[in-house]
Design brief:
alpha+beta; four-stranded mixed beta sheet; 11 helices; elongated
Length: 313
């Protein structure tokens, strides 16, 4: 009897061992979980219902499902509504126009938030430059904040943003020449020989003084600029240009940035009253901040413009 019980115990141990081996084998053979595609994520999340409608109408749903490595800066419903875009507006837009807007939110490479540089530009699927930056305040694209980063998809990554990005169509030079309040600035840029610098591809930041700002600095009109010494005008204008993209979100208190004027920098001072820029020994210049895309964070094809109310001498 004792021998019989021993045999039963051994059989039970062997059976358990077999079950464990079978279980482990089944676990090893089980496929690893696969992240959903970008389209799957957008369609499944009710916070993206307007984006989902836009993607479908633009005919981009299949493109965002295909295998690959994409980065999508995805506006949620609140971002669309803040831009005045509802589902009804989406349905009223031509698919080609929607596609132009949406592809400006997509980069043809996987870019996690940890890889976003302090400031740089990247070309989107729409072929235009998108200006990215990262600082103590977070990660930004064209000055728009990433509110939720690194949502993993099988074909890339999604960063949720709190605004809708508008593809730029004009250069810095074209924006300036098309606005009468910049006529003295345009004359100064021409006199300084910097027309090419603000017309050619790049990622410049221009702090643009208005005509009133130039007049307060002693330049009554374009004729006064043309009568001034070219070297002096060059020194003034180049003090207002930074050779990289700097949006309002990047204007961190006490930060300094080199301008294209050799050896010159700008110092940023931020406060509840607004943003001030200081050159060498001159009084500060206020950045006019009444409306994004109107007087600051004016995105162009080759950089960004901020309107200021003082000339930095």
């Amino acid at each position: 009897m004792k021998k019989y019980m021993t045999s039963l115990k051994l059989a039970a141990i062997a059976l358990c061992g077999s079950m464990v081996m079978i279980s482990c084998s089944e676990d090893n053979d089980s496929p690893a979980p696969v992240d959903p595609t970008i389209t799957n994520i957008v369609v499944a999340d009710t916070n993206f219902s307007i984006l989902a409608a836009a993607v479908t109408r633009a005919g981009l749903a299949d493109a965002l499902t295909q295998p690959g490595n994409l980065t999508v800066f995805a506006p949620d419903n609140n971002a669309f509504r803040a831009a005045g875009i509802t589902a009804a507006v989406v349905n009223s837009l031509a698919p080609a126009d929607l596609a132009a807007i949406l592809t400006y939110h997509v980069v043809g490479a996987k870019v996690p938030s940890t890889s976003v540089p302090a400031s740089d530009s990247v070309r989107t699927l729409g072929g235009k430059l998108l200006f990215a930056s990262k600082n103590a305040n977070g990660v930004f694209v064209n000055g728009v904040r990433v509110k939720t980063a690194d949502v993993a998809a099988s074909n890339g990554v999604i960063h949720v943003i709190n605004g809708v990005l508008t593809p730029p169509t004009k250069t810095i030079a074209e924006i300036a020449t098309g606005n009468p309040q910049f006529s003295i600035l345009v004359a100064a840029v021409v006199k300084a020989g910097l027309v090419d610098a603000v017309s050619n591809p790049g990622k410049y930041t221009v702090f643009a003084p208005t005509n009133a700002a130039f007049q307060a600095a002693g330049f009554a009109d374009e004729a006064a600029i043309n009568a001034a010494d070219a070297a002096d005008v060059l020194a003034i204008v180049s003090q207002h240009v930074i050779a990289t993209n700097v949006y309002a979100s990047d204007l961190v208190n006490n930060a300094t940035a080199p301008t294209i004027k050799a050896g010159a920098t700008l110092t940023v001072n931020t406060s509840p009253a607004g943003v001030k820029l200081t050159g060498s020994a001159n009084p500060f210049s206020n950045v006019v901040t009444t409306g994004a895309g109107t007087t600051f964070d004016i995105t162009t094809t080759n950089g960004v413009i901020h309107v200021i109310d003082r000339v930095i001498l």
